[in-house]
Amino acid sequence: MCDDDIHQGLVHDPSVSRRAFGLMGVAAAGAATAARAQDKVVEKDVSVKTPDGEADSVLFHPAGQGTWPAVLLWPDILGLRQVFRDMGRRLAAEGYVVLVVNPFYRAKKAPIVDGAFNFANPEDRAKIAPLRATLTPPNVDKDAVAYVAFLDAQPQTNKKAKVGVQGYCMGGPLSFRTAAAVPNRIGAVASFHGGGLHTAEATSPHLLIPKTNAEYLVLVADNDDKKEPDVKDKLKAAFAEAGRPAKVEVYAGADHGWTVKGSQVYNEPAAEKAWAELLALYKRALG
């Protein structure tokens, strides 16, 4: 989940260099190749028109001629910042057109926090409360449609391929909503330590699964699972009932936020394992 009490204290943005991010988890023999691949990625700040305004975002795609499948990336609760730019660049180097968005554009342009952010500090938590309030289900659905339309309008996007969507923390449920808002385009959904995927509310993301046509990868944090041990089984049952292919896995020893560099609980081996699972999903599902 993404409640304040599950976050592990201090979070900072390490502003990882492109080369350092490319080397992460790569054997020494292949490190130079990985770095060169990311150097061949085009990065561009963009503004995406939505029914409620313009969302500051960043677009990545491989350099050169060609078309590639598109991916929408929803960041965690601290929004669009350098670490998610690095993720977007790394994914584009694998052969994808990637849009990383600022979910809070209605209230503030990115970055929404400067420097370190401490979830143990009430004053820090208070800064994001009004931003979270802008992410109502109707707003998210409108934004999802606009973001996917923007990706489809790019000349680098392969319109014959399905679109992927991935989310971190609060981005997990937003990814589920995206798959339901644009079911004819979304072919793969990945949630990393996503919160509130199965709740008792009428707006619970799991209720949207039958409306989607995607394959799912749901990777659950160990401490999230300990707090709500029945959620993984409920999600598995929901996917089975809807007939949607899905993998729901608890990452033992990896706590909430383990995939995001700069988190106090960042776990590089587990993050690299999750990254490999993500790439395998997209290779299968996006065509």
From TrEMBL:
Q: Name the Gene Ontology molecular function terms of this record.
A: hydrolase activity
Q: Which domain of life is it from?
A: Bacteria
Q: Which residue range or ranges hold the Dienelactone hydrolase domain?
A: 57-285
Q: What class of enzyme is it?
A: hydrolase
The record lists the organism as Phenylobacterium terrae
Instruction: Please identify the protein, giving its name as recorded.
Output: Dienelactone hydrolase family protein
List, alphabetically, the InterPro entries matched. Answer: AB_hydrolase_fold, Dienelactn_hydro, Dienelactone_hydrolase-like
Q: Which Pfam families match?
A: DLH
Q: What is its EC number?
A: 3.1.-.-
The record lists the lineage as: Bacteria, Pseudomonadati, Pseudomonadota, Alphaproteobacteria, Caulobacterales
What residue ranges are annotated as transmembrane? none
Keywords on record: Hydrolase
Question: What Gene3D superfamilies does the entry give?
Answer: alpha/beta hydrolase
Q: Hydrolase among the record's keywords? A: yes
